[in-house]
Design a protein that fits this description.
Radius of gyration: 38 Å
Number of helices: 4
Helix content: 55-70%
Oligomer: single chain
Shape: elongated
Order of helices and strands: HHHEEEEH
Largest sheet: 2 strands, antiparallel
Number of strands: 4
Structural class: mainly alpha
């Protein structure tokens, strides 16, 4: 560059200016959203006329994705879809028959009631966890008291 002649420097300057102009034009083209949209629509129409198979595949994939999201949200909103439901003991129905009066007519309608959950392993585990948590909280409280006492003395 230091030994270049004036015409060579001017030529390099013109080429640089042309590249900058091309870059600015390309940026304007990229920023022109309506034109890019029209171009995308035109390309899609052209592809559709030529071979619609890839476009149909893309549309089906998108529809399956949207359907999966909708179904997932629906399942997540049901009580059974939440992980917290796994920690709840399942109700065990027990049939309670209706008492019959002396005249032979039934008093009320038969119902199903919940069985006492004490035999349910999920319930037992949850109760044991509550017990451990209380024990740990008590132990932590005692250690905090000891540390405060040690800090004072």
């Amino acid at each position: 560059m230091p030994n270049d002649s004036l015409p060579e420097l001017e030529l390099a300057n013109v080429r640089t200016r042309e590249r900058i102009t091309e870059t600015v034009d390309r940026i304007r083209q990229k920023a022109d959203v309506p034109a890019r949209t029209r171009l995308a629509v035109a390309k899609t129409k052209q592809r559709w006329r030529h071979d619609p198979t890839p476009l149909v595949a893309v549309a089906l994939t998108a529809a399956a994705g949207v359907a999966a999201i909708v179904v997932g949200v629906r399942i997540g909103n049901t009580p059974a879809g939440r992980l917290a439901a796994l920690r709840e003991p399942a109700p065990v129905p027990v049939f309670k028959p209706v008492k019959v009066r002396k005249d032979g007519k039934s008093k009320g309608v038969p119902v199903f009631a919940r069985k006492d959950p004490t035999g349910n392993p999920v319930y037992q585990e949850r109760e044991a966890a509550k017990k451990r948590q209380k024990k740990d909280a008590k132990r932590a409280g005692k250690s905090i008291k000891r540390m405060k006492k040690a800090a004072k003395g």
